[in-house]
Amino acid sequence: MSAKSADKKQTTDEQAPLRKQLIALLRGGQAHVTFDEAVRDFAPEHRSAVPSNLPYSAWQILEHLRITQRDILNFSAPPTGGYHGIKWPDDYWPKSPQPPSSDSWEQCIAAIRSDAEHIEALIANPDSDLFKPFRWGDGQNLLREALLVADHNAYHLGELVILRRLLDAWHK
Q1: 22 CB contacts (<8 Å, ≥6 apart)?
Q2: Residues 29-57: tens digit of each pLDDT
Q3: Residue 105: is its pLDDT beyond 60?
Q4: Total of domains in the chain
Q5: Residue 92: is its pLDDT beyond 90?
């Protein structure tokens, strides 16, 4: 094998097609609504409303998305000091149906977008082996965590869309 073909072999990312598909799945818009579509122009007066027979407000769902996605990011790429899990379900859901401040909704959206970019960067990095189990955890790998984020976000974005439709219909 020549040095040129050895260099080419070392730089070939066999996982590149899967990385591309995972990022597309995370961004949404194929089989489900995108994050931006789900939160765009969500009426401020509806963000803390909890319709009868439903457990959460739009704020609680949005904040739950942020908390969970951040936890998965921290698990996938632990900050200095390692991964420190949070308690299920208490630490994953805000108690109050109301955002704590007038800026909380937009701050939460910005944090979700930022963390999504970090997750996408992890996936896009050809040095990240999607299949290699993390040294921590119980055999999880980056592929599993990326699929978990996509599945979890799609589920709760669907809830936001339905909640929005209910609230818009009830308040017109």
Answers
A1: 123, 130, 143, 146, 147, 150
A2: 988 899 999 999 999 999 999 999 999 99
A3: yes
A4: 1
A5: yes
Q: What is the domain extent for residue 45?
A: 14-170
Tens of pLDDT along 70-90? 999 999 999 898 999 999 999
**Domain for residue 123, yes or no?**
yes
Tell me whether residue 27 is in a domain.
Answer: yes
Tell whether 2 is covered by a domain.
no
Give which of 127, 109, 107, 117 is closest to 149, Cα–Cα.
117
Residue 80 lies in a domain: yes
What global pTM score does this model have?
0.91
3-state secondary structure (DSSP) of residue 89: coil
